[in-house]
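chain and backbone:
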Amino acid sequence: MEKELAYALDTFYFLISGAFVMWMAAGFAMLEAGLVRAKNTVEILTKNVALFATACIMYLIIGYNFMYGGGYVLPGFDLILSMADNTAEAVTAGGDDAPYYSNLSDFFFQVVFVATAMSIVSGAVAERMKLFSFLVFAVIMTGFIYPIQGLWSWGGGFLSEVGYSDYAGSGIVHMCGAAAALALVIILGPRRGKYGADGKVNAIPGANLPLATLGTFILWMGWFGFNGGSELAVASVDSANNVARVFVNTNMAASGGLIAALLVAKAMFGKADLTMALNGALAGLVAITADPLSPSGLLATIIGAIGGVIVVFSIVGLEKVKIDDPVGAISVHGTVGIWGVLAVAVFSGASFGAQLIGIASIFAWTFGLAIIVGFIIKAIMGLRVSEEEEDAGVDISECGMEAYPEFTNE
């Protein structure tokens, strides 16, 4: 009876954590909708809801098996049917060989992670990438690219064997998504009007900063499931204590990242830049994700604060080299994702060599495949909307409607 109770509690905790991570999809949608121009709002929202559904389907039929089924190319109907039938688990619950949570709860928790990685891409390519070209890329990203590199670490592959440590995915999820985003942004090029003839960087403000702020708070909240759920259990004293520490450290890192980014922005620009503050909070969250369990609350705050400093300089630096990322996703999830992975070696005793191998492997695989897939999609169906469509806004050309029809779409 005690084992069955633990099984039920851990399964329930896994499912609730997965629901929290799923809620991050709403955070990404609101953040991105707030940071793009009004004329591109409907299209970015459509991308976010469609990518989530695409990720869920692709991970069910093929991605999960790549990552946790031994790397087989096709799952076969037996896997799909077994995932829809929990009878065997119900019979063996509490037995000596039973898992301590339902396998279906594990799938649900993992599928929302792959959707998170894909959400990172949508913000970086906003305002100029074709909707259905993006969704074709999402099929490849969520069905093949992400799961295969996930196999190398969480699936028991060579990265886990060399000692690569990444508790909840600063590299496996966040840097992976950012690497794919970087590849597509390079192929797409910057938005029209982003750079002047003399190379001057022109600011393109988002249409709805209250919405972007709401999105950041939603992501902050969802991250408790992202990191807390990665403890994988809560039904023992040790695991419950670990979950509590993870929650506290996650919250403190976000706080440290926000304050640090706000102060750096004030020093650099002379003003309190809200968008930098929001990205600072997210940077702190990404930074602590590789190890939210080991540090003290104060150290977690410092790790997050370093991420907040890094993200401001990264956003400014990428703009100068004409990497146009409307929401700062590549910096938040990529540059700071690298810091998060290295922070495990700096503060928690992981091998620097193993962490560097992990960073290099994940980036090379994801960026390389994303470049190839991006060029193939470009050749077959095109990747970028026309200049006329971009100037008018992709809401009308891609979706046939406007988010704010009563206002002028500028």
Summary: Residues 2-399 form a domain with the Ammonium transporter fold fold (CATH 1.10.3430.10). The longest helix spans residues 2-35. The chain has one domain: 2-399. The CA atoms of residues 7 and 100 lie 5 Å apart.
